[in-house]
Amino acid sequence: MNVLLIEVNQLTSSIPLAVFNISRIEAIGFTSNYLSGTLPNHFCNGFPILKRLYLSTNKLHGHTPTSLANCSKLQILSLSGNKFDGPIHREIGRLSNLQKLFLGSNHFIGVIPQEVGNLVNLVDLGMERNQITSSVPISMFNISSLQYLLLANNNLKGSLPREIGNLTKMQVLYLNENRFNGEMPKDISNLVELEELGLEFNSFSGSLKMETFNISGLRMISLLHNNLSGIIPPNICSVLPNIEHLYLDKLTNLFGTIPHLISICSKLTALDLSSNKLSGLIPNSLGYLIRLQFLNLGEII
Questions:
Q1: What residues does 133 pair with on adjacent strands?
Q2: Does pTM surpass 0.85?
Q3: pLDDT of 85-143, one tens digit each?
């Protein structure tokens, strides 16, 4: 493989134009430098066999050129941690060989194009920390190969569709700090490989139903600062036997007592139940959580 990697240095200025004339190159990496400027409009015209492009953590700015779609053999595209703005172009859907797409921590605006659903080989997708609006297109939930989906810190809204249950290979799902609402579909329980689920700082409503999160491999779940209501289900630990981090704080409509069987969550290292309407005694069984490193119960009424 013909490769050009100049990473984790202090390179400045723009990417030399001569780079764009190396037609037989398969991988380009300028990650973690101080490169500035824009990507030229004719980008990818000179890279017929380019498979991997790493430009994350620089100071590149401007719109991403639509000509990126001409890099038809791209498997990895990493542009995160720059100053790219403008929309995510619908042409992205032409990169059908993409396995990893990282666009996080930029200034992208507008909507996620429906054409993202054409990326049927996608495993990792990161669009976090942008200014993306509207709802998530249904087509994204049909990418059955997805294992990592990061959409946190945007302005996404609407409810989660039942089609989220199609993502049966999903391992890490972060939708936190958006404006999602409505009840969480029980189809989330179809995500049998899920290990981390971040839904905090949204407006999800309805009762806290453990059948929704009946995923034995979950290690982290964060639901804080939503509109969920009801009690903490007594069977929470039998449903989540491998849970390590459980954040149910700032659910102002959560009431009742702390389940005595919380001790069955033997792997818990972090538990936050503060700023709710919980009442009653603090169960002695909490003392059996020998791995616990962080505990916040706030004020128990």
A1: 155
A2: yes
A3: 999 999 999 999 999 999 999 999 999 999 999 999 999 999 999 999 999 999 999 99
Closest CA to 40 of 12, 20, 69: 20
Say how many C-beta atoms besides its own lie within 10 A of residue 42's C-beta: 11
pLDDT in tens, 137-192: 999 999 999 999 999 999 999 999 999 999 999 999 999 999 999 999 999 999 99
Per domain, the residue ranges of the chain are 53-296
Give domain 53-296's CATH superfamily.
Ribonuclease Inhibitor (3.80.10.10)
Question: Residue 293: CB partners within 8 Å, gap ≥ 6?
Answer: 269, 270
> Rounded distance, CA 154 to CA 130, Å?
5
Question: Phi/psi class of residue 92: alpha, beta or left (left: φ > 0; alpha: ψ in -120 to 50)?
Answer: alpha
CB 255 within 8 A of CB 278: yes
SS (H, E, C) the chain: CCEEECCCCCCCCCCCHHHHHCCCCCEEECCCCCCCCCCCCCCCCCCCCCCEEECCCCCCEEECCHHHHHCCCCCEEECCCCEEEEECCHHHHHCCCCCEEECCCCEEEECCCHHHHHCCCCCEEECCCCEEEECCCHHHHHCCCCCEEECCCCEEEECCCHHHHHCCCCCEEECCCCEEEEECCHHHHHCCCCCEEECCCCEEEEECCHHHHCCCCCCEEECCCCEEEEECCCCHHHHCCCCCEEECCCCCEEEECCCHHHHHCCCCCEEECCCCEECCCCCHHHHHCCCCCEEECCCCC
Q: Mention every residue, 6+ apart, whose C-beta is less than 8 A from residue 192.
A: 168, 215, 217
Contact (Cβ atoms closer than 8 angstroms) between residue 26 and residue 52: yes
